[in-house]
Amino acid sequence: LPSIFHKAANIISIIEEHHYEAYFVGGCVRDYIIGRPIHDVDIASSAFPSEIQAIFPKVIPVGIEHGTVIVRYEQESFEVTTYRTEGTYTDHRRPDEVHFVRDIKEDLKRRDFTMNAIAMDANGKVLDPFGGREDIAGRRIQTVGDAADRFKEDALRIIRALRFSSQLGFSIEVNTKEAMKSCRALIDKLAVERLTVELEKLCAGAYFSKAVEYIFELELYHHLPIFKDTPLLLKEIEPVASLAPVFAFVELNSESITAADCTKAYKCSNQLKQQAHALVDAYHRYKENGIDAWFVYQLPRKQWDFFIYLVKQTDKKIIDIEVFYSIRKKLPILSKKELCVNGYDLMKWFPERPKGKWIKQQLDAIEYQIVTSKLANEKSKIKDWIQWNLPVQD
Ligand code: ATP
Ligand code: MG
Prior knowledge:
Blueprint: H1 4-17, E1 22-25, H2 27-34, E2 42-45, H3 49-55, E3 59-63, E4 68-73, E5 76-82, E6 84-86, E7 98-100, H4 104-109, E8 119-120, E9 126-127, H5 132-137, E10 140-141, H6 147-153, H7 156-168, E11 171-172, H8 174-182, H9 192-204, H10 208-217, H11 243-253, H12 259-265, H13 270-289, H14 293-298, H15 301-315, H16 321-329, H17 343-349, H18 358-371, H19 379-389
The structure holds adenosine-5'-triphosphate and magnesium ion.
Adenosine-5'-triphosphate binds near residues 112, 116, 156 and 201.
């Protein structure tokens, strides 16, 4: 087994020594069989949360009512979830009730797709009651059990089918596909935060265009906030690892939808909202002044790729990231903290001025002067400059 499983295999062995079962389940088993990189390892166990707590000295009860705990083991965290069945999702958010069970088959049966319903023990032996491996070999996405029933239980699975086809390039099996179409109106009832999590992964998938074809074939865009008003934009989006550039792209390429409309519709975090806004802003400044020292200074490194993406998508123009690096190399400072003066210096130099917003204004002005190489980052030079620049007091 790949090394990511090794430590977790110890957890499984320890649980087994206490006469319970435990298996690797879900995405890690699927990705291992496919041969994709595995990002996190989930463990399912017949032991109840209280029983897991009795086995390991350090257990964090993160979602104990749903059977999930985190086991701390040799400075690492492992999610262990008790085998369970789920009721229906009346509020379309969480199952009404979960029942802990002792049979792994019951647990696999409640999972969404056959490829996600495979269990593997610590030695790599596989339990696959729904033909998941066969579907993986055939590159097919197929629900466990009757597709329409499963989508009525939880319509998020419709979006998850799209997301997996975008990530894996798999096709959707015909019955599953037809049920996605007939159940599609149920998507409107989902808690939008659940949709957002899947949308982000959907947009990042290497086979996003394949998922977009399904979105049109099955007329699912009617049920995607924002895109229902501008469906054709979906066809122009290329895969990208965050929704911030996607929503910035929507603002720049639609008549009246703003990035703020998008982040609101999808209830995104403030951080994502600010990032999308910053990208739109950067794009407009770029159109006005090009990429200069001030521009590079203001755009955080982690936004560079998204900005380049945005320009490529919007203007069909490729910006070489080297442009950013070579400008940044020459920047006199990389952040305000590197200014060799601060507010206290200013107050000391001008004791007659009461504390006020002039201090921040002057620091901002100094920052701009230094970044654009109009002023050296030296105390005496800055003091001279500021004496000339300060407005006369009235
Ligand atoms: P990823 O690699 O993106 O984490 P994943 O398959 O692990 O993919 P998760 O959302 O982490 O996806 O879910 C873990 C597992 O839980 C899935 O593999 C699936 O077995 C099950 N699962 C998750 N969401 C649902 C759902 N809405 N309905 C049924 N089963 C689900
Ligand atoms: Mg997962």
